[in-house]
């Protein structure tokens, strides 16, 4: 798609990528790219911005320079698959090089790579709360049993990302455990607020989720 753009649209796309603020979310970054473009160009621009983001993440994880990454894409082994004329290929290489050099794209991709560089990054959580009855002994001479009391059980379901597949983890908690978790989360929020201000006072850009 990049090779088919005229020079004006290619420049417009590059400027939109450059104007987008770096952030932690690919979708948020793409939204920043497309919002400044005419309505009719947003869909294709969003698809290309996603491709650029994924390319930048791949380049970072491979530990190669932009020039090396682009050279690999346009290597002799891939020329046949690209189906581009020499002129279009050179034009596409130049455009891709300018796109991958944009700071906001690099910072967003780098942040995403750093944030997910763990064995099991968090994806989502739910808590299911159940009432568990406590039954007494059977009534003498019968099989009848009646609940005498009840307890609450909270099941925390964690969905974790992985290199090959997602993983689900269930943790059973009572009310005291739930409060312990809430206290820990509140403390983490307080620390996050303080550290974000510390980062800003240090002159660095703090990337909001």
Structure description:
- Helices cover 53% and strands 17% of the residues.
- The mean pLDDT is 87.
- It has helices at 7-19, 26-34, 42-62, 66-73, 79-82, 86-100, 103-115, 175-201, and strands at residues 122-135, 147-160, 167-173.
- A 3-stranded antiparallel β-sheet has the order 1-2-3.
- The protein has 209 residues and is an alpha+beta fold.
- It starts with 6 loop residues before the first helix and ends in an 8-residue tail after the last helix.
- It folds into 3 domains: 2-115, no CATH class; 119-173; 175-209.
- The longest helix is centred in the last third of the chain and has 27 residues, at 175-201.
Observed structural traits:
single chain, 209 residues, alpha+beta, 3-stranded antiparallel beta sheet, 17% strand, elongated
Task: Give the helix/strand layout.
Elements (H helix, E strand, L loop, with lengths): L6 H13 L6 H9 L7 H21 L3 H8 L5 H4 L3 H15 L2 H13 L6 E14 L11 E14 L6 E7 L1 H27 L8
Helix pairs in contact: 1-2, 2-3, 3-7, 4-6
């Amino acid at each position: 798609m990049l090779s088919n753009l005229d020079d004006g649209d290619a420049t417009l796309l590059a400027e939109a990528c450059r104007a987008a603020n770096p952030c932690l979310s690919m979708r948020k970054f793409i939204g920043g790219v497309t919002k400044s473009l005419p309505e009719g160009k947003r869909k294709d621009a969003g698809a290309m911005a996603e491709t650029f983001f994924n390319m930048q993440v791949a380049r970072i994880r491979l530990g190669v320079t932009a020039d090396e990454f682009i050279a690999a894409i346009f290597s002799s082994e891939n020329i046949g698959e690209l189906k581009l004329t020499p002129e279009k290929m050179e034009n596409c290489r130049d455009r891709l090089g300018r796109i991958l050099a944009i700071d906001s794209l690099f910072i967003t991709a780098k942040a995403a790579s750093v944030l997910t560089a763990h064995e099991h990054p968090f994806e989502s959580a739910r808590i299911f709360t159940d009432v568990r009855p406590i039954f007494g002994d059977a009534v003498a001479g019968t099989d009848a049993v009646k609940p005498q009391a009840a307890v609450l059980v909270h099941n925390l379901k964690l969905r974790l990302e992985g290199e090959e597949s997602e993983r689900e983890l269930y943790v059973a908690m009572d009310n005291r455990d739930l409060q312990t978790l809430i206290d820990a989360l509140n403390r983490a929020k307080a620390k996050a607020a303080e550290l974000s201000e510390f980062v800003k006072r240090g002159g660095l850009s703090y990337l909001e989720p």
